[in-house]
Every structure is written in C-alpha cells, then in structure tokens.
C-alpha cells in the first residue's frame, strides 16, 4: 500500500465530510476514517466518489496511507472521545508526526493534551474551526495553536482551505502555544452567543414594541446589512424573517426554547476565573437558560403582570434608527469584552496573541464574520498594545455617536417591559468602564466591617488597612486575597 495521502481525517459527520471535500478541491489527497465503517463506505461511494479521497477501515490502515511526517486531524465529539482516539493513535505514529484536534474542545483539555503528546515526541495542534457546514465546505475560519513546530507542516494546507478576506488574505494564522487556538475559538463562540442574543433583543423590540410584522422586520435587517451592521448573522436573520413554507412564516412556528453546546458557558466560566467582566456574554448564556424553562414561563406569564401591552407608537424611522445604533454600540461592547478576556488570558497563560490577526481570522468564513472586524484589525494594527477597543479613537467616536439612542432604546425596554439583558448590560458596562470612581469603596468597607477583610486607602501606598468599625473587635484582620 503506497503512502501518498497528505493528511488523514477521523470523523465523518457533516463538518468532517465537508472539510475533506474542501481539502480535495485544493489539491490535497486525504485519507478518511470513521468509527462506524459503513459511514466511511457511504462517503467514499457517494459524494466523495471520483475524488482523490481514500477510505480506511482501521486506524492502522489510515496511518499507513500517509506521507511522512504524518498529519492526522480529529473531528469528533469533544471530551473523552478525543482522548480515546489520541490514545489509539500515539503507538501508530512516529516522532515528528502531527495530531490535530479540530473539534470544539475545551482549551484546558488542549493544554493537557499538548503536554501529554509532547512527551511522546509527537506534535499537537488544537485548532478552532468556525463557519458551520458551509464554511467547512467552502472555506472556514481556522485558529490553530499548540506546538509551533507543527505550523510549517500544516500551514500551506490550512491557509489554502481557509476562507479569504476581500484582499485575498487567509482567515487562518498561528495563534499561540498549547490551548491558545481552542481558547480563541471559545471566545469566538462566546461573542457569537452575544451577537445572537443582541439580534434577538432587537427582533423582540421590533415585534413586541414596534408591532412590526415579519416582512417589515426583514426589510430593516436587510437595510442594516448594507451599512455598519453588515455581518453574516444580520444577513441570515433577514433571510429567516422572510422565509415561508405553504404561505406561512417558518420562524413563527419555531419554539422559543434555545439550545447550547457549552462553549458560551465555558467562556463565562473562564471570565469568572480570570476576573474579567464579561457581562454581555454572561447574560447571553443566561438568556438561553431562561428560555429553556418554557413551561414555567408560560405559567408565570399568566400570573405576573407587567406594563399594558399597547401600541406605543414606535413603528417609525426614528425608532428604527435608534434601535440600529443601540445594537451597533452593544456589539462594540461585546467584542471589547471578548478581546479583554483574550488579553487577560494571554498574560495568565503566557501566550503571545496577535489581536489584529485574530480579527482577520474572524473576517471571513466564521459565524461572527462582519465588516466591523476590519475596524478592530485596524485598531490593533495602529496600536498592538491597545488595552481595550473602546479606547481607540474610531470606536470611542462610534459609541459617542450612538450613545443617546442606545440609552433611549434601553430605557424604553424597561418602560414597556421587553427584556433586553444583553443590550442593557452592555450599557451598564460602558457606564462602569468610563467611571473613575465606582461605589466599590462602600463594598470594601462592608467587607471590612463584617469580616475584617481590609481595604486600601485613596492615595495610599498600596498597603492594606482594617478599621474596628464597632469598637468591639480584636484588632485582628483577615488575610487579603483576590479569589
């Protein structure tokens, strides 16, 4: 059996099949394997017929088809299935061969696997893959990280199959060591949660507040997609609103109970662990959790009364413009928080992340692709050490321009009883971030009062102090720490 294949791929679900076909289209010879052998045979005899793709019934056969150094990509369910395959692959490979995890793995698992695999002399890559089945087939956004020695071995393939910007640059570059690639993909998915929730809140405001029908909302989203809000998610929202079957809008038959696969939750958990105020993405995750208790919400809707459901006269161009600006400003906050998390993680995990490069990786192929990302890349190209995109001249000006309408929309949601947790938390974050003196001095005093947790003084030298607020304490204070 000749070893002629450039790469192997394990896992022939929709993403795996489409990614393999993409590789074939770009001139790479691919060997494939699936735990269920029949799926491999169906793929090879079906849509992969008359291609250079070869099937294998065992992992041993799969590896034997590969040129050296061998490159094996895994696209299976995250967690133990990935570990199981890695364990089976290690004895079959030689030093310098590459194992690539292209699934939605938790970055902490990738950190562990990178260290485990390095001890064997093999090279590990954990890569984010975004764009869904369409992106996998026609060009995804790829975010590889792991052992940098592997990058020269996979760079050509990855950058050829990746999506391209309008300038022709690949939406793929090396991210960083160990789990960095999967971390950046995790943040991407967190921002995706935020974007989707913000769009849903705008839709809810139009439907329940402005009393617009689906066609009118379709027209608004279509117009937004030709301006600053130009993005994949705005585009598909316009399409969804217009889609009909048998004369009925399909959207109106979809149950309002959202699912999730955990990446948004991981983003929120990591933000809490690192102490990053990822408020908008957190609200987006909790909004899905709230949607999940549908039966309880139906009961509550009959018992808990809010403002009267009347026509508030909002269906006009003025409110459409205000809502668009509120959505845009909130979107800026979502990305600002996401990049804050990546910057903090880079310091914590000793990664060197190229933030402008990450924005470019997300510019095409992925779910959060948007024209807006060009502005983020420009901000980091101009100032690579930028602490927060809100401090960039362009984004500061954009938020200032949108601010009055942003406040107007959020205030109206509270007045008429339409939930907008992501949009309102974005505004609260903005107000907190721009406030030099927050009421946390009182919070620290409270902690010191009931628990002797100490505090630092304004204009002090950074040392910690304790006050015997009740004159009945022992004078002993707690140790000071940040959890």
Relevant terms:
alpha/beta; 19 helices; two-stranded antiparallel sheet; globular; 483 residues; eight-stranded mixed β-sheet; 12 strands
Itemize the secondary structure elements and their pairings:
Blueprint: E1 7-10, H1 14-25, E2 30-33, H2 37-45, E3 54-55, H3 59-64, E4 71-74, H4 80-89, E5 98-101, H5 107-118, E6 123-130, H6 132-138, E7 141-146, H7 151-161, E8 176-177, H8 180-209, H9 214-224, H10 232-242, E9 244-245, E10 248-249, H11 263-274, H12 279-292, H13 294-303, H14 317-349, H15 355-361, H16 372-382, H17 393-416, H18 421-433, H19 440-451, E11 455-456, E12 464-465
Parallel strand pairs: 1-2, 1-4, 2-3, 4-5, 5-6, 7-8
Antiparallel strand pairs: 6-7, 9-10, 11-12
Helix pairs in contact: 1-6, 5-8, 8-11, 8-12, 8-14, 9-10, 11-12, 12-18, 14-17, 14-18, 15-16
Structure in words:
By secondary structure, the protein is an alpha/beta fold. It is 53% helix and 9% strand. It has helices at residues 14-25, 37-45, 59-64, 80-89, 107-118, 132-138, 151-161, 180-209, 214-224, 232-242, 263-274, 279-292, 294-303, 317-349, 355-361, 372-382, 393-416, 421-433, 440-451; strands at 7-10, 30-33, 54-55, 71-74, 98-101, 123-130, 141-146, 176-177, 244-245, 248-249, 455-456, 464-465. It has an eight-stranded mixed β-sheet with strand order 3-2-1-4-5-6-7-8, with helices on both faces. The radius of gyration is 25 Å and the shape is globular. The mean pLDDT is 94.
């Amino acid at each position: 059996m000749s070893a002629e294949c450039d790469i192997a791929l394990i896992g022939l679900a929709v993403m795996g099949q489409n990614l393999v076909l993409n590789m074939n289209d770009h001139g790479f010879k691919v060997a494939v394997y699936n735990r269920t052998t029949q799926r491999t045979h169906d793929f090879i005899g079906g849509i992969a017929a008359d291609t250079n793709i070869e099937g294998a019934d065992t992992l041993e056969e799969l590896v034997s088809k590969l040129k050296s150094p061998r490159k094996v990509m895994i696209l299976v369910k995250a967690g133990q299935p990935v570990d199981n395959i890695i364990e089976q692959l290690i004895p079959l490979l030689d030093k310098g061969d590459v194992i690539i995890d292209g699934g939605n793995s938790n970055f902490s698992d990738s950190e562990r696997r990178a260290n485990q695999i390095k001890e064997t002399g093999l090279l590990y890559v954990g890569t984010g893959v975004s764009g869904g089945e369409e992106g996998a087939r026609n060009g995804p956004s790829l975010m590889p990280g792991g052992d940098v020695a592997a990058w020269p071995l996979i760079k050509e393939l990855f950058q050829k199959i990746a999506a391209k910007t309008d300038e022709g640059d690949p939406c793929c570059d090396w991210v960083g060591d160990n789990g960095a690639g999967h971390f950046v993909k995790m943040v991407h998915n967190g921002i995706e949660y935020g974007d989707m929730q913000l769009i849903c809140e705008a839709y809810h405001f139009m439907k329940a507040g402005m009393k617009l029908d689906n066609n009118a909302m379709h027209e608004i989203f279509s117009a937004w997609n030709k301006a600053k809000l130009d993005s994949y998610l705005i585009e598909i929202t316009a399409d969804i609103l217009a889609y009909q079957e048998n004369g009925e809008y399909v959207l109106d038959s979809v149950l309002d109970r959202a699912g999730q696969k955990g990446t948004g939750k991981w983003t929120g958990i990591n933000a809490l662990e690192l102490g990053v105020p990822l408020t908008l993405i957190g609200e987006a995750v909790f909004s899905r959790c709230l949607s999940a208790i549908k039966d309880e919400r139906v009961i509550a809707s009959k018992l808990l009364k809010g403002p009267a459901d009347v026509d508030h006269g909002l269906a006009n161009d003025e409110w459409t413009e205000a809502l668009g600006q509120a959505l845009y400003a909130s979107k800026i906050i979502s990305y600002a928080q996401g990049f804050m998390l990546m910057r903090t993680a880079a310091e914590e995990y000793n990664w060197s992340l190229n933030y402008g490069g990450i924005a470019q990786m997300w510019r095409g192929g992925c779910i959060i692709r948007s024209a807006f990302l060009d502005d983020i890349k420009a901000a980091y190209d101009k100032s690579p050490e930028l602490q927060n995109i809100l401090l960039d001249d362009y984004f500061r000006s954009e938020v200032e321009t949108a601010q009055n309408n942003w406040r107007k929309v959020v205030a109206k949601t509270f007045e008429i009883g339409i939930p907008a947790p992501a949009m309102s938390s974005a505004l609260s974050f903005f107000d907190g971030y721009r406030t030099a003196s927050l009421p946390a001095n009182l919070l620290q005093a409270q902690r010191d009062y009931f628990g002797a947790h100490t505090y630092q003084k304004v204009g002090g030298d950074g040392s910690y102090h304790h006050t015997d607020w009740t004159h009945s304490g022992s004078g002993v204070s707690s140790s000071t720490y940040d959890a």
